[in-house]
Description:
This is SAND domain-containing protein. One of its GO terms (cellular component) is cytosol. The protein is α+β, with helices and mostly antiparallel strands. The protein folds into two domains: about 10-120, Roll (SAND domain); about 140-235, no CATH class. The protein has helices spanning about 1-15, 20-25, 80-85, 95, 115-130, 160-170, 195, 230-235, and strands spanning about 30, 35-45, 45-55, 60-65, 95-100, 105, 140-145, 150-155. Strands 1, 2, 3, 4, 5 and 6 form a six-stranded antiparallel β-sheet that branches. The radius of gyration is 20 Å and the shape is globular. The two termini are about 20 Å apart.
Amino acid sequence: xxxxxxxxxxxxxxxxxxxxxxxxxxxxxxxxxxxxxxxxxxxxxxxxxxxxxxxxxxxxxxxxxxxxxxxxxxxxxxxxxxxxxxxxxxxxxxxxxxxxxxxxxxxxxxxxxxxxxxxxxxxxxxxxxxxxxxxxxxxxxxxxxxxxxxxxxxxxxxxxxxxxxxxxxxxxxxxxxxxxxxxxxxxxxxxxxxxxxxxxxxxxxxxxxxxxxxxxxxxxxxxxxxxxxxxxxxxxxxxx
Length: 240
């Protein structure tokens, strides 16, 4: 049984990218169910932080950091690796995380390596649209800045947006400038209270919380690579 599963994994990995596509990328190798390549992120202050990027056929991306010989950071998302590297213009990991292709640093979005990530993202977005026709949707949420205490709105219509909100909600030092989708600073005005009551519930725009718009855990808003208690409990209890 084990040999059969292993053969299936090898077959899946071998079909992900062509030999020609991987030969152009430095440090590439095939694992059981993933492709691994050398990657990095550059900070003007700290220089290059190098790591190993694993691309899984289900769209997951994991980076093991090798910035120093003693670094223990493993299974980082590209966004977390970007932040760990000290990149000054963080929150743009598709542009800031790079691989070596034909001797030059090339951002991830210019390579084939995001193919399965983008496919998984599209499927998630389709599922999100279907949820509005019956399954619970995710209303907009707010997180307060730790420096100015202003509340900032987060839209939760895609996996990527849910992850940004999730990371912000568990970050004890989250600031306005960390919001990736808007160029916000603490100087920008907070939304009026009369506007904040509109949360995007499909039942009522001014809903204060109902079973339609409040989700207590699903594949869109819970993450298997997150170690927080909420995600861990969901992953442990989710049906296979």
